[in-house]
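WP5 quarterly update. Target: Regulator of SigK. Source organism: Streptomyces silvae. Length: 251 aa.
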Amino acid sequence: MSTAELHTLTGAYALHALPEDERLAFERHLGACEACAQEVRELSATAARLGLAVSVAPPPALRERVLRDITTVRQEAPASGRSARAGGSPGRAGRWSTYALAACVAAAAAFGGVAVWQNQVAQDARQEAARAAQHNEQVARVLTAPDAATSAADLGNGARGTVVVSQSVNRAVFLASDMARPPGGKVYQLWFDDGGTMRSAGLMDPSATDDAVLLDGPVDRASGMGITVEPAGGSEQPTSDPVALMEFQDA
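Structure tokens (predicted):
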């Protein structure tokens, strides 16, 4: 992908809408392009504000109004005279009106439930959009920091790992490329190396072979990072030999 094409991906990146390979390529580009980095920060902030916008919900009094209006609809009079003599059932029309009224009440109640469900779905979507925008913004802050320092390592079988650390932001980002998926029921877990003591830094997506992971927690005095294969959900301490150990470089 050319540099000119990468310049056009700021909007899609801010909306978390790029395929994995393009996202990884664009994040590498961010480290060398201040114009794109600034545009991503602005678009991410805008996306977050739009995602948090309040949606239009049905008026709270709608259910009560529907129930009130139902009571004003006249029921049909009981069958009499000619219809009764013709064999009609005197109570049939009344019963059908009762059934219709019950159906309307049930529909009104169901409408209220659907409105609550739709509002919850919208709220969940807004929260997810806000989390994605915040993740993108934090990753961009690390990659574009003036003191960002990069270390790379061969992870075997053609896979590569790159860690970018910013002491001023006090965060680190791990970029994986062509990593083999972990065995079933397992997950890659990242660790900060605090002078030989390993501190959990989060889990990778087990379904992703290319990924950009914002390590959990601050860098602080960590001198490097490691990757191990752990049971799903992660471990408090490493339980397997490291897939890789990477030292942090100074800016």
